[in-house]
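TODO from last week: model AAA family ATPase.
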Amino acid sequence: MDQPVATGKVLYVDDAAAADHIRNARRILVVGCSGGGKSTLSQKLARHFNLTYISIDRDILWLPGWEQRDRAEQRQRIVERIAAERWVMDGTGPSTFDLRVPRSDVVIWVRMPRLLCICGVLTRWLKYFGRTRPEMAPGCIEKVDWEFIQFIWTFERKFSPRIVAGLAEHGPDVPVLQLKSRGQMQRLLDLLGLPP
């Protein structure tokens, strides 16, 4: 695919076109299911392109002990952070696409298969067992429960339509790259000259 393709008012682009957009981007939004690798990718992009890394989980959503911030405060914190000129933001939350997508130069949708996402979450849980991972709010000890596994298992069916609708409504001209495999993610990293 050489040219961007608009499907349902979402401007999907291929790896090479996305790499060009990413190289020139000042603001990148990375969305997708938990465990798919969006935080790792976001942090690599932030380091490589000298962008501020913003984690929805750490900076917007959670307070210590897995308590959610009030929605109005969440939105205010997003407004404050997206006012900056250079950032990469990691987190899905279609309910705030109205704020985040229009401000983004490119969206990367990490759309990995659900078994890969579950494996990613379990691997992360083992790695950070009893601790808080860096992209999470302080005091939110890494955990996996049945509800979280169900969330991942049903993510594609329940949330992907909301992601598509939000992208179409709030950013029909914002290029979107879907990463659907680890191989495709590695190709993007190779195109950008980033290590695996």
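Done. The helical segments are 15-24, 38-49, 56-61, 71-82, 97-100, 114-127, 146-170, 182-192.
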